[in-house]
What we know:
This protein is mainly beta and about 90 residues long.
Amino acid sequence: MCGLTASGEAYCWGFNRWGQLGDGTTTDKSTPVAVAGGLQFASLWAGGRRTCGVTTSGTAYCWGENRYALGDGTGINRTTPTPVLWQSPP
């Protein structure tokens, strides 16, 4: 579970086996914890094993379980926001 403050800071809580809370750990949290990195998000999506967001500057980040699903070109789980790698259309 995640939410955004009025200024765009992300907070998450709950199950965290894959690092989907984004606080740099895999420890479950019963109260909201700040997502690492000091980023300001315009939108946020939280799924069962991963979380993604788009910052106010338009950069996409994902974190959590990564079976080649975070968009960073690896299969490594991430416990903090990791930029999504993509190419602009021609």
